[in-house]
Amino acid sequence: MRAGACLSLTGRFAPFGTQAANGLRLWADTTGAELTVLDDESEPAVLAKRLTTLAPTVDLLFGPYSTVLMRAAIPIAERAGRLLFNHGGSGGALSHPGRVVNVLTPARRYAEPFIQRLVELGGGPLYTAAGRGAFGRDVTDGGAATAQAAGITVAPLDLDNPPARPWDLLSAGVYEDDVATVRAARALPNPPRYLCSVAAAVASFAQDVGDPEGIYGVGQWAPGTGRAVDAGMTEAACLEAWDARYGGAPDYPAVQAYAAGVIAQAAMAAAPDDLWRAAAALDITTVFGRFRIDADTGEQTGHEAVLTRWHGGQSLPLR
Q1: Can you give the pLDDT at residue 92?
Q2: Model-level pTM?
Q3: Residue 2: beta bridge partners?
């Protein structure tokens, strides 16, 4: 079984692309798959050149990290006649039935567990801050719609004219933008009462923002769920294997890439000549969570985002 991916081992997405590459390597090591990983340098032009060469040579093709690179990868995979297993992009228009298997919760649904928590806490009004790119806009637009449906007033954040009354914040974007927004908001004379940041789901967040105590994060995965699995390693086994090979604990880009390998392998075992049909028929749980796609739209419907909260120097899952 030959598998391949172009991932960002250098450039602005490198911290996450490297995690994803190591997640796929962990899957390949435990299954005997022959894996090729090429560096896309976080650049669409480089991705196009290298993915065009790689795609025809593999049985299983995995997408790059980030929404912008996934959008660039889709037509290349289609021209090569390869189904693309998407573990790295959740924003924008990435649902292409028959062409892309989406492992991730769509970005527009990221904030749902945080909005549920705000309702429980009696929070609001909610201010939103979207960083560069489609991902941040999708997260904040989806969160705003969910909040408004729950009766919470929503407005965009203007750091030059911040709220004077109690307020809450949902921030999403590329990691460095998200961290900068959190730091600026917490430095205000009237900082947000409840703050949720996509960046807060990453382990390095604590170091980058200083004191993260009380900050909520939303992400695709967090350790500590301990769920039963149908395929692949359990959480305990996955964390142990990761620590033995790479040291420490993986962030969610690594685990979602590992899960994509498990899912692709299951589809290959079921129907190697029709991977889309096989993937669309799957309803399985991995260490990453439930996998189930809508065969008509191509959207991931089984997996849900995880809400975390920093306490005592740890990011702990709440839902």
Answers
A1: 66
A2: 0.88
A3: 34
